[in-house]
Fold:
Amino acid sequence: MGRSQVLAVAILGAWIMSTLCMWFAATRSFATVETVLKRAEPQFVATTKPLGDDPTRVVLRYMASEINRTLFWGYGALQILLGVILLLLVWRQSPRPALDVGVVIAMLTLSVILTVVITPWLISIGRDIDFLPRDPPPPIMPRFWALHGSYTGLDGVKLLAGIGLLIRWIFR
Structure:
């Protein structure tokens, strides 16, 4: 295995790992809000007492949302960068494996769609609903969840394609 192939494996591995790390961070952020509220330190309870329980939850959820938004922008930019580098490496291989090029192009295309199309919509709608009451759910919630599901589904397809490509390279 040549140097560029080893580098391609490393970049694909980093891309896969960044996806797994992003999924972990995104799924844990709101759960962490509830954990903080349930197991709050006395200083935290004293500091937030003037706000009350529900407003404190809203503030912490807003903070988790903003952190997630920042992470999603960074994650999107990282994916596009890794995808472009990986495509260049795979393209330069001789002989050029058409399947590998196609998978990397598909992964890169999904990353661009996720970053440039779906992420801005999610962020915009997310900011619109940050401070709205959830009982009953605001009318825009079904659209938010549809976009969220689309993002997760496409990101999952990209992840599976990357894992499949990595397995192909390992056993080739």
Q: What stands out?
A: Residues 53-92 form the longest helix (40 residues). Residues 45 and 52 are 9 Å apart (CA to CA).
